[in-house]
Design goal:
The chain has 28 helices and 25 strands. The chain is α+β, with helices and mostly antiparallel strands.
Length: 711
């Protein structure tokens, strides 16, 4: 039976499938236990070679068909690349083989109103190394190290600078000596990827300490700055104006970078330069600032602050710390900024090759990077009395000829809990000034007079509203940005019920009081309380009064000029607002401001007559002192602001010294000395230069004989 079965099924596919089943079936063979295992071998599953019919033609057909399909796919792909996607393919090839690097443009100059150069450029020689070439020829780093004296470790660090892409040469050595430059040029085959580049860097003809906060500095661009200017063409190795005029007028000063397109092979080796577009030098910015005046103002402010720190306060006996201060000179007829100083300051030359970490942190800690003229917030004290006096005469709440008996101590009539912090207020000079009208109250800086004025306004809120003085301060611009053409301007505040609530919401511990009392209105009327303003805003308010009521936008820049002397932009005076100052309002206040300087009882009479070297009869000056209290035990802020000549004002000069003591003793001398300079050196009109000469940037490399010049 077993033999007949095999004869019928031998070699068939059915038999190969059947055999394993039969091997375990209970009827498969006698004499074997049902549960006895039987091994299944490969021969039981696969037919013997003799049993399979040979079909070589079928194998060749399958193999041939497979390669035919591959060939068809290849032909199809070539058709798509060569015919359908021809332009895309060419662009992809070019992208892979061409690299574009930027050629930095020379920045424009910064000039003063007479055309004197405040910020220039000097050409320095840099040695640069391509990272791609350094990777292909590692020995070049050792050769450069031997020639320049720079360690290989430092060269590797420079090459790792993320500011430069793979095909952007990285600076290895600045201010390279002539022997190094000459050797590289004479042996280009030994320094593949090394380039000698003449680059323009900022230079300061006046030493770098002239008007530092106004001029500002440039530094490496940040990623945030690149993101904020997506269409400006900035690269990671670009420089960017970081402060002052350099920052505000970056779009004009920066110029337009050129480009250099280089060809590289598949392994990244530079083959040569394909084409070059020349950079365009930046426009120059001419300022309203006068170089001589700026230098003098910087010196007056710095020397005065250092002097103040050595003289004890006659009242407290303490040495005023005087940590900071500012001084400003404005043209009240246009808003032009003729000079602006801030203390402490820094030297701009320090930024040319980069600040050290220690110097950076030291400058940061003492506030040197702040421009206190536009960012400092100071309690104004008695300089605010001009604002309150304007509100007094505009509303008619008190006649300017009405005399008030200044006893030195003002007690709120009908004193009650509505006084707030207190019901009794004392003059700075507790003996009082006796009977005073408005002009005398300003000249003598009678606190009592303005205590009474603040009380009158608050007691008649039904007639004049809650904020008549604050409304006038707003018209003068004290609680607004002046919109000066400098970055990061601060904004002041004038104390009021609304401001008090806002301050409490922002800082409950610093400003715990939410309610507004009679005493708060009294303090606000003579520039105390939570009022804090910038020096520039106050200078502009006095400029508005000086010219008869027109508030101009303060402007540092006068014009933008291209490299050929053509005026690109000319900045004309811009009006921000008006203050109603007819003669019946302005004249009584002006009489008091004149008395501050000219009257023997005026608060600044002694200071000016001991310092000025010109006649007040020919050049009369009006002004106001301010001694603004700070939180105890701090010394008061010292202020003085003046303008002249009074009949046709040309200059407004302001000085503030934080915690400097009395206004007449600390700030007034700076203003008096500044008027000495102005009388001796009158400021001339802006003179636009007919031609500007800027240095060129020359690039020579060992891969090309092309010389690239900017401009």
């Amino acid at each position: 039976m077993r033999g007949s079965w095999r004869n019928r099924s031998s070699g068939s596919w059915f038999s190969r499938l059947w055999r394993p089943w039969v091997s375990i079936h209970p009827f498969r063979g006698r004499g074997r236990s049902i549960n006895e295992p039987r091994t299944v071998g490969i021969r039981d599953l696969v037919a013997a070679p003799a049993e399979v019919q040979s079909r070589p033609e079928r194998r060749w057909m399958i193999i041939g068909g497979f390669f035919l399909v591959l060939f068809a796919l290849l032909i199809g792909r070539l058709f798509v690349l060569q015919i359908l996607d021809y332009k895309t393919s060419v662009a992809a090839v070019n992208t892979n083989s061409l690299r574009t690097t930027s050629i930095p443009a020379t920045r424009g100059l910064i000039l003063d109103r007479a055309g004197h150069t405040l910020v220039a450029n000097i050409t320095t020689v840099e040695i640069r190394l391509s990272r791609a070439e350094a990777a292909n020829f590692p020995v070049i780093k050792g050769a450069l190290a031997s020639l320049t004296g720079i360690s290989v470790h430092q060269i590797n660090a420079d090459l790792s600078n993320v500011q430069y892409d793979r095909y952007q040469p990285a600076p290895i050595m600045q201010n390279a000596p002539a022997r190094v430059v000459e050797f590289i040029k004479l042996h280009p085959e030994e320094f593949p990827g090394v380039s000698v580049l003449n680059v323009a860097t900022r230079a300061y003809p006046n030493g770098g300490d002239l008007g530092a906060q106004v001029l500002g500095y440039v530094g490496p661009i940040t990623q945030n700055e690149i993101n904020a200017n997506p269409n400006a063409g900035y690269q990671t190795n670009s420089t960017f104006g970081q402060a002052g005029i350099e920052s505000f007028y970056e779009q004009y000063l920066r110029g337009r970078d050129g480009t250099s397109t280089i060809e590289v092979d598949p392994v990244g080796k530079v083959i040569g330069t394909i084409n070059t577009s020349q950079p365009h030098v930046g426009h120059s910015v001419m300022l309203n600032v006068d170089q001589g005046l700026q230098k003098a103002l910087d010196g007056y402010l710095a020397r005065d602050i250092l002097k103040v720190r050595r003289i004890p306060d006659p009242r407290s006996g303490r040495l005023p710390p005087a940590p900071n201060g500012a001084a400003i000179v404005l043209d009240p007829t246009t808003g032009a900024v003729l000079a602006m100083s801030s203390y402490p300051s820094y030297n701009l030359s320090s930024f040319v090759n980069g600040l050290s970490t220690n110097l950076f942190h030291r400058l940061l800690a003492n506030g040197s990077f702040n421009n206190y003229a536009i960012q400092g917030l100071y309690t104004p004290g008695s300089t605010f009395k001009m604002i309150s006096a304007t509100a007094q005469l505009q509303t008619g709440i008190l006649s300017p000829t009405t005399y008030i008996n200044d006893t030195g101590t003002f007690k709120v009539p009908g004193a009650s809990s509505q006084c707030g912090a207190g019901c009794v207020f004392h003059d700075d000079e507790t003996s009082g000034s006796g009977p005073v009208n408005l002009p005398l109250a300003i000249a003598k800086s009678s606190d009592y007079y303005f205590y009474n004025l603040g009380y009158l306004f608050w007691s008649q809120t039904g007639r004049y509203g809650e904020t008549p003085i604050q409304n006038v301060a707003h018209n003068y611009g004290l609680d607004q940005y002046t919109n000066i053409d400098l970055p990061n301007e601060g904004v002041g505040r004038v104390d009021s019920p609304t401001v008090r609530k806002q301050l409490h919401a922002q800082a409950p511990q610093a400003f715990p009081n939410v309610s507004w009392y009679t005493g708060d209105n009294i303090g606000m009327a003579f520039g105390q309380g939570a009022t804090a303003i910038t020096p520039l805003a106050l200078a502009n308010a006095y400029a508005t009064f000086a010219n008869g009521g027109t508030r101009y936008l303060p402007e540092v820049a006068a014009a933008v000029i291209d490299a050929h002397g053509k005026v690109v932009v000319r900045y004309q005076p811009r009006v921000l607002g008006h203050v109603n100052l007819p003669p019946n309002i302005r004249n009584p206040i002006l009489q008091g401001l004149l008395g501050v300087v000219e009257s023997p009882s005026g608060t600044a009479y002694g200071t000016f007559h001991s310092i000025i070297n010109f006649s007040l009869a020919s050049f009369p000056i009006a002004g106001k002192t301010g001694t603004a209290s700070n939180a105890k035990p701090q010394e008061p802020n010292s202020w003085f602001v003046g303008f002249g000549p009074v009949a046709h004002p040309k200059y407004v000069v302001l000085c503030v010294i934080g915690q400097g003591g009395y206004g007449a003793a600390a700030a007034a001398p700076v203003v008096a000395e500044t008027f000495n300079y102005l009388v001796a050196h009158p400021i001339r009109p802006v003179r636009l230069k007919a031609q500007l000469t800027l240095p060129t940037t020359t690039t020579s490399t060992n891969t090309s004989t092309t010389t690239k010049k900017s401009g």
